[in-house]
Design a protein that fits this description.
Blueprint: E1 2-6, H1 21-37, E2 39-46, E3 50-57, H2 62-81, E4 94-98, H3 101-117, E5 141-145, E6 161-165, H4 170-173, H5 178-202, H6 210-214, E7 235-236, H7 242-267, E8 274-275, H8 281-286, E9 289-290
Parallel strand pairs: 4-7, 8-9
Antiparallel strand pairs: 1-3, 1-4, 2-3, 5-6
Helix pairs in contact: 1-2, 3-5
């Protein structure tokens, strides 16, 4: 799964600071939520206005993971910044399934290249905040101490130290060696950085650089134009994967059709109706039966 969540009104609340406190907060919250809910993390990047993660949801409980991650991250950010309002936009988290190896490689490379696309730094390696590089995938273990903000040291729920391993995606690991995976991500990253450089030049932007990024006020807002409405994809298959795309569309339509039919039967009084696999809200709120 590829995940993203943005701050309220695009404030720079998550931006990296000189003391690297925001970086510590993010890694701690991510590692804690991942361990609590059995989530496997492959890559992550914390931008000034949003967060990106690529994960594998082993237990099928990623909404609970997101609830834990974003609640703790928001509360800790409010304590750090002295921010009195909500931290994250009230719209739901962006979530889309990565259905092919190509989609997985492209999504990880996109996550890594995000600071370049935003015009913040010239190359992804220069981003001063919490981020993943191609060489980190399947190789990096992040060890972080408990932040001094929000988390009480006398509460056993918040350990003194946590670890987060950035593992190889299973669907890639079954086909390729670790080095082949990292090489593929590096090649795709180079392509996406090139496209980002062209876009920055076309828009006549000036790249900020890591030092200026650190000096940004967290209370400022992003001013670049953004369309009011855009696509919120459900899945990704990667470039040139037409067969996989049409198969995914058919599967998604079949699920939605089965879900609507099951919901209509339950509303008509059939309380033992079985919902299709993938149903979440009805399962949690009303304990409906879900097909295996």
């Amino acid at each position: 799964l590829a995940l993203s969540r943005r701050t309220t009104r695009r404030h720079f609340l998550l931006h990296p600071d000189e003391a690297r406190e925001m970086e510590q907060i993010y890694w701690y919250c991510l590692a804690h939520a991942a361990k609590l809910h059995g989530i496997v993390v492959h890559a992550a990047c914390l931008m000034s206005t949003h967060a990106h993660e690529v994960i594998t949801d082993v237990r099928g409980v990623y909404p609970k993971f997101l609830e834990t991650l974003h609640r703790n991250l928001a509360q800790c950010t409010k304590a750090l910044r002295g921010w009195p309002e909500e931290v994250f936009n009230k719209r739901s988290t962006g979530v889309h399934a990565l259905l092919t190896p190509a989609a997985m490689v492209e999504s990880i490379a996109y996550l890594i290249a995000n600071p370049v696309e935003a015009g913040a730094v010239r190359y992804a390696k220069d981003w001063p905040g919490a981020h993943t590089l191609a060489a980190d995938v399947g190789a990096r273990v992040i060890r972080v101490k408990r932040p001094t903000h929000y988390f009480r040291p006398d509460n056993p729920d918040w350990p003194d130290k946590v670890e987060l391993s950035l593992t190889l995606p299973p669907q890639l690991e079954q086909r390729y060696t670790a080095q082949e995976i990292r090489n593929s991500v590096s090649q795709e990253l180079e392509r996406q950085e090139g496209l980002a450089h062209q876009e920055v030049k076309t828009r006549n932007w000036r790249v900020l650089g890591s030092e200026r990024v650190r000096r940004l006020s967290p209370y400022r807002r992003a001013k670049s134009f953004e369309p009011l409405r855009g696509r919120n994809p459900t899945f990704a298959v990667g470039r040139g994967q037409k067969n996989a795309f049409f198969a995914a569309v058919a599967e998604l339509r079949a699920f939605r059709r089965a879900y609507r039919q099951a919901l209509e039967r339950r509303r008509s009084g059939l309380r033992d109706t079985v919902f299709p696999k993938g149903t979440w809200s009805m399962c949690c709120l009303h304990r409906v039966a879900v097909s295996a």
